[in-house]
Amino acid sequence: MNIQDYLSQVNQYFSPKVIGEVNDVYVKVAKIKGEDIPWHNHAHEDEAFFILDGELLFEEEGKDPFTMKKGDFYVVKKSVNHRVSSKSECQIMLIENKSTAHTGEVDSHVTKSIEEQLN
How far apart are CA 8 and CA 89, in angstroms? Predict the structure, then answer.
């Protein structure tokens, strides 16, 4: 299946969908629009972001915010507080360990369980 075909099945913002797995890692796609993702971290896992389309504002504690654009790739190291947002729809691919909780230890209205991400 084509990545755009997977993205066409994503009908909620901030709701990652697992599209594949490699060993102990999930490959996910998501659409981002707005500022609903809370500050959070992943205590034991790094998290990789790849921008498929649009622009993503990336905020990481202790650093200046930066904008990621189509084709950009960035890895957030474990335990680093971060959040993302976008004024217009942004399509992303995430590469995360299977144990990575969507919004870390922070539970918010956008938090999705791994079961929700697999459906």
Answer: 13
Length of the chain: 119
List the structure tokens of 27.
């490959």
Q: Check residue 94 and give its pLDDT.
A: 96
Token output for 82:
């971060």
Summarised one tens digit per residue, pLDDT across range 58-111 is: 999 999 999 999 999 999 999 999 999 999 999 999 999 998 888 778 888 888
Euclidean distance between CA atoms 25 and 13, whole angstroms: 22
Buried b or exposed e, range 11-29, using 16+ CB within 10 angstroms: eebbbbbbbeeeeebbbbb
| CB of 33 closer than 8 Å to CB of 13 | yes
Question: What is the value of pTM for the model shown?
Answer: 0.91
